[in-house]
Amino acid sequence: MDVVCRKYSCQFNDRAKCSRQNLKVNNHADCADLDVDKNKIVQDVSRDMFMHEPDIAPYHHCRTMNIMCEEKECIFNNSGECFSNGIFMGSEQDNAPCNSFVPR
Question: What are phi and psi of 77, to 5 degrees?
Fold first, then answer.
């Protein structure tokens, strides 16, 4: 399972990868474990994103990560557990939505 996360201000975000062992997605398809660190220095790639490659962590398959999902309408939800090959958490103002959510 590879979890890509665009919420760079979260303390568990390591170069666009989630470093948590257990992740919970709530019934609104948002990350329930989001922990924003207001003092974290976030890489700004908006100014020179086409001149320099952003610092992104390499793909790593985390076999031990458990993703619990409360969104009952997602096709990847099987008895409260996510069975997707990988998920993509987005970045909005106050939350990190699961952009891999696909309604049944």
Answer: -80, 120
* Amino acid letter, 23: L
| Tens digits of residue pLDDT in 47-92 | 766 776 666 666 666 667 889 999 999 999 999 999 888 889 988 8
Neighbouring C-beta atoms of residue 16, cutoff 10 Å: 18
Look at phi and psi of residue 101 and say left if phi exceeds 0, alpha if psi is from -120 to 50, else beta. beta
100, two tokens: 């891999």
Please report which confidence band the pLDDT of residue 31 belongs to, taking 50, 70 and 90 as the band edges: very high
Dump the DSSP string for the chain: -EEEE--TTBTTEETTEE--SEEEE-TTSBBTT--B-TT------TTTTTTS----PPP---TT-EEEE--TTBTTEETTEE--SEEEE---SS--BBTT--B-
Domain residue spans in the chain? 1-104
